[in-house]
Amino acid sequence: MNGRPISGASVGARTRRGKGALALALGTLMLVVTACGGGGDSDSGSGSGKGGDKDSGQADTKVSQAVVTVAPKDGADGVKTSGALKVTAAKGKLTEVEVEDTKGNPVEGKITDGGATWTPDTHLAASTKYKVHAVAKDSEGREAAEESVFTTLTPKNTFVGIFTPEDGSKVGVGTTFSVNFTRGITHPEDVEKAIDIKTEPAVDVEGHWFGNDRLDFRPEKYWKPGTKVTVKLNLDGVEGRPGVYGEQAKTVKFTIGRSQVSTVDVKTKKMTVRRDGKVIKTIPVTTGKPGYETWNGQMVITERLRVTRMNGETVGYGGEYDIKDVPDAMRLTTSGTFIHGNYWGGDAFGNYNASHGCIGLRDQRGGGDRGAPAAWFFDRSIVGDVVVVKNSNDRIVDPDNGLNGWNMSWEKWKA
Known about the structure:
This is Ig-like domain-containing protein. Pathway: Cell wall biogenesis; peptidoglycan biosynthesis. InterPro entries: Big_10, LD-transpeptidase, LD_TPept_cat_dom, Transpep_catalytic_dom. Keywords: Acyltransferase, Cell shape, Cell wall biogenesis/degradation, Peptidoglycan synthesis, Transferase. The chain is elongated. By secondary structure, the chain is mainly β. It folds into 3 domains: about 65-150, Immunoglobulin-like, CATH 2.60.40; about 155-255, Immunoglobulin-like, CATH 2.60.40; about 260-415, L,D-transpeptidase catalytic domain-like (Beta Barrel). Strands 21-20-19-27-22 form a 5-stranded mixed beta sheet, with no helix packed on it. The chain has helices at about 5-35, 190-195, 375-380, 410-415, and strands at about 65-70, 85-90, 95-100, 110, 115-120, 130-135, 145-150, 155-160, 160-165, 170, 175-180, 195-200, 205-210, 215-220, 230-235, 240, 245, 250-255, 260-265, 270-275, 280-285, 295-300, 305-310, 320-330, 340, 360, 385-390. The termini are far apart. Helix content is about 15%, strand content about 35%.
């Protein structure tokens, strides 16, 4: 009998408390909504949120006006190795350009035109995938970026350079670094640019073309003994002639040894051997007889043969001689001039000239006596040593007949 009034009173109390709680919750919600709206400016009192807060950071959300363009486009294939790669920026300036192959090897380049353009310093390698990442900033400092991945062409026709001296060689002061190309080159500047030579100590080294398939490098004067030379043949991808590309990427290092320059005087029939500027021996010789005079000029040893065959037919002298066991022979010209041992010359050495143009030194058949003049000279010579011939009745040897570019003036060499 007492339950119903108690029950009724209880329901009424809950109803009132519920309404009060709901009102409180709604009031709190209104406060939260007003606070999050950003319009509760105590100065204006409008609470509308129009106009925004100047310090709200909305300006930072604007997109950069800079536009970066990468050529070739992403996914391109068969791209030319020269002239195709270029990055540009409009309504902004390039601040960063990174290009590398799949092995992480970078492609160096420069940003030019006040930040509007980037181009590579050299050609690209053939059959290689590259990735480009470029960033530019607009006038407000906002960045825009672009990326591209492309693959260079695979050439159908290629060439390589056959070079001397070999990697790791120790050579004489008259050495020239010579490259003979397997195809004639019609873009010589591009090929020459792809060959980089650095020396320690530093010295100016210039290249000179003989025809369209040979390129030699040398300093103005003979190398300084001890010089270390590093040559980078970056020919992979360089277009040597239309549609013909290099396929060679190699580093070659060689060192210049002691200085040895020997002078042959045709009149006195003697050779003076100088080591580091000091005379170490004078040797009687025989040179070219009348009608077969030895070339004048500076000649460089390019090949050393402990024994070789010399046949007159190979140099246009018919069957005048054929000696199968010439000892201690060293080549001075491509055309066949040697300085070599001679065991058949009798008393010619120092007395009269009896050869067909070579420089002969007394030797023993088979070269067994290493104290004989030719053997002594052979054992103390290396590729790159210089032999100078003077007072001959013949002209100066051609600069491209062997590695004898020293017979060309520095001005002509550079030209």
